[in-house]
What does this fold into?
Amino acid sequence: MFAPMSDRPEFRSHFRPRTRDGWIATTLFAALFALCMPPVTHVLLNRTDPWLFGLPFFYAVLLIVYVALIGVLLWALRRGV
It folds into this structure.
């Protein structure tokens, strides 16, 4: 009824990146995403002074992190990852 395991083609998981660019994009995205999550935001970024770009420090840093996240996604798109 079923073919033996040795006769079946082996498929790699689609959850793990297959290329070097894929690993770079995934690692960088996860690291940047960790910067906008509560443990980091509540402990390290939770302050209003100084003001950057006319915004309180917290919002300016989150804006920079979100723009960097979008940049990583666009880089991955251009590389065909």
